[in-house]
Each structure stands twice: as structure tokens, then as C-alpha cells.
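Lab meeting tomorrow. Look over both lines:
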Amino acid sequence: MMNSSRVLAALVAGVGILAPMNAALTAPKAQLSMITGKVTSQPIGHYEFCRLHWDECSVRSRSTTARRVTPHGWEVVREINASVNKQIQPMTDMETTGREEVWAYPIDVGDCEDFVLLKRKKLMEAGFSASDLLITVVRKPDGEGHAVLTLRSTDGDFVLDNLDDEVKPWSETPYTFLKRQATYDTGRWVTIEDGRDVLVGATQ
């Protein structure tokens, strides 16, 4: 097993980015990263999750600067996104717990938030910073609420989605982005102003 310090160095040090990510580099600079706004409401599911996992919801960061991800780092990101998508069978909270908005680490079944939590946990174990792995609430084209994981990097914001094995720049997804965890505090949430007909209000 690799030494944790070597893994971290491999993930966030060095220069360059994997070829499939180059498409994002040709986008206008304003589109590479989301523009966040004011502090907003915490999803009720995340609030309940934080009551059980306070250590994960009380991480503070003084730096809001995203880190560079190396080619090896992108390989790890893509592998984790695809493997979790394959490992977990999609099922709603009502089907698995009989309640709505239950955020938990999945074992073999779960909904979109559960996929996000597991991917975030695996990426942090691989050496990524919590401030660069942000649970994000979006609205699908059909109007349904959905959750994805945003990976911040010096080359922009990328989305890990249980509905897509490909890790894509956020601006190349079909979603309306509503809110996400704050980079400076994993227990706080901020609005997203993405310039694409942002809806008023946000899902719980």
C-alpha cells in the first residue's frame, strides 16, 4: 500500500492535466468554475447526517484556492466515480428506509446523495482535500432535485455523477446548479450563480 504522503503528493502536486479534461480549458474563463453567492440553507438530509458525523461537518479551511490535480489524480477520480456507480444500486430513501432525505454511506444500495457521500469519502482517503470535494444540489432538466459531487481544481470545477460514469466540467452538464457546501466550512452551504436561468429557491 502506498505511503499516504506519497499518494497526496501524486494527487495534488506537479503540472499538467489528463487529455480528456482539455475540453474544459478551451471554455471561457468565467465558465471554468462556479460563482458562489451568499450562505444559504443546509439541506435537511445533510443536517441530520452531520448530527451523526460531526467531525466531517466541522472542517474549516483558511484557503479557498483550489489545488492542481495531476494526471494520476484524474485517473483516481474517474476510477472512483465509475466504481461507486457500479457498486451501488440506485434506490430511493423511501425504498430503503421508509423515509425521505436520509443521507448515509451506502453499502450496496442508495440514492444520489449516498453516492456522493461515498465518492467524497473515498477521494478524501486518497488524499484530496475536503475543501475541494463539495456536495452540490442541482435541478435536472425535468425539474427533479438531484445531488452530485463537485471537484474543485485549478482547471475548473468538475462533476462526479451517479447518472454518468464520465467526469465532466460542470458547465457541460444539463443541470441548473442551486447550492453547494462552502469551501471554507463543510457544515455551511452557499448559493450558486451559474448564469443559466438559476431557479429561485433550492430543494431540501
